Amino acid sequence: MGSVINYIECPNCKQPNCFNDYYYNTGEEVTNCPDCGYYVSMFIKESSREKNLSDLVESDWDVVEILHPYGTGRARCKGAINWSEGTFKTKEDFLWMVENLSVEVEELIVSRFVDGKIIVTDVIRQRKLSKIIKSIKS
Question: CA-to-CA distance for 92 and 61, rounded, in angstroms?
Answer without folding.
Answer: 28
